[in-house]
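Example (one chain per record):
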Amino acid sequence: MIVEDPVRRGKGYNERILNGGMNVEQLPAPRGRTHNGSRHGACHGRVAIRPSRRPQSMRRGCRTPLFTQVPPALRTLEQSFPCLEEDDVRIAIAHNLRVTDDAEETVFTARETVEYLTSSIARAGHAAITLEVSGPVESILRGLREHDPDLVFNIAEGWADSGRQSFYTALFARLGLPYTGSGPLVQALLVNKHLTKLVAREHGVRTPGWRLVTEPRDPDLSGLRFPVIVKPNSEGTSAGITQKSVVANPAEAISHAFELLAQYTGGVLIEEYIAGRELTVPYLAAVDNEFGGVLEPTEIVLDADAERAYNILDYGFKNYRRLPVSTSAPRVEFQTPARLPDGVARQARETTRAVVHALGCLDIARVDYRLGADGLLYLLEANALPGLEPGLSIHRAAQLAGLDPQDGVVHAVIASAARRYRLEAL
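Predicted structure:
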């Protein structure tokens, strides 16, 4: 069953959040279901969720597992999975729907991806609820009260600033709602590339040298190796990155950083440019393998192009479909598994395991690297909400781990979240 939430947002979202929010304390006290346990300790029940509307007969009797067919890669978790009645589980897909080509909606979710997720959840035997969360707080709360989800499948990116993702998970946590993926603190950490690099470096992970620019004052760039790449600190989907982002000297770097600083309030990174190969490594906590859920690396291979002086995944590469019609599709190959020496592939997976544990990622993540000409791996960033649209390399990597190529990723995310919250038949 798929339930469509009619709430849509318009412009001025931030102002409506500030001026139109509903006080959570005004909502009715929880009288209905609760869930047992969480990563942070005992759960005190739900806030703002009405009593269950399901008949008592649906909450008793024979129970079926969350998945009637458990993939081999997940079988060691089978005994840990809650027993949920197949038709008695409501999963709300919290998302920001992309409806325009505006730059601020670049990280939002396409309608086709939402449709894929609803179908995947329905194929697991659950009720899929689409919950658009770009509007004011009261509309989000109204949707949650109306649909009363047992689990929130969270892919909400949010609008501006470094707290855009963590707003939603903080809200779900305050309401006592189980949700998939990392919590608000981890999301805020990963959105901030500077902080991610600091944590990674503290744990012995190699990352290109860098400086963070937060104000229009000349930074000290001594010790950095040029060329460097100048990019926003807290943006996604390569926003603010073009072929002109790679510069050869300090004067150009500072000038470009100040230009970006006028557009992006989260600061700007001036980072050593690593000429080499682009690798991305996904993580699924539910997968049982020798790398703790880290899947096969993918190499993103861009064909040589006279108009692309540098082998970088810039804004034009990731968003060419939403650029002017004259923009041609980039020639690219996603190689999964990446054609790497065994030692490098193993190192990428072991490093990713160390990174996701150090950062505190839950359920799903992705870590991006450069493999330099020196043969060394350099961490670029980590992502708590990697893309899930069909055709992405994470699905191929999951298939190589023994999961279903169509639904394995989505079902694995649900499985690990269900285990963490110890969800029971409701």
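Caption: The two ends are 17 Å apart (CA to CA).
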